[in-house]
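Deliverable D5.2: sample structural annotation.
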Amino acid sequence: MEISPVISIVALIVSLFTAWFTILRRGSVRSTHPSFVAFRYDFVDKPVPQAKIFLRTLLFSTGKRGLVIESLFLRVSEGTRSEEFSFWGYGDKDLVRGSGIFVPESGVVTNHHFNPLHTENLFRFSNGTYRLELVAKLVARKGLVSLWDIALDIPAGAYDTSIARETAVFFNWSPEEQRYVGSIEKRSGFINAFSDPTES
């Protein structure tokens, strides 16, 4: 029995698999759970203060060629309330309006800021359990991709009596405890949504 044809067939199969895995396979987009999540308000030229949720996470592609996220948003629910936070901006320092982002296999890590779609209504961060789902719409793909879903408890006292410009509720991920640790913080210099950071 000749071995050469067998080796040739195996080599062809390996080559076809490699071509599919590296060139043809598009994969999908994934996200790490955010290292931190924060709840606060933006005070901009709107009828009411704008609720904001911002977080930091790594987005990466499972395909070699990378993918383009057309839009990214949060589904936010608490009790019987639900809201689409789809006014999206991202950046480590200067925020830009989210209108698509390329996600390579090596990933892209940055801060993402989300405000409600309906700006005329006040979305109050009362104490309670908030479920956040990060959802992506990919270019040339039908349907939406759910990247992660987490639940966070906003403690009493954060926004019970007033909505202060400098108040934020932070949740930092503890790898050892495998949970988010929350705290109410007072900080100056928060950046408003898509504003000049020197104006804060």
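Annotation notes: The mean pLDDT is 84. Helices lie at 4-24.
The annotation will be released with the project's public dataset once the embargo ends.
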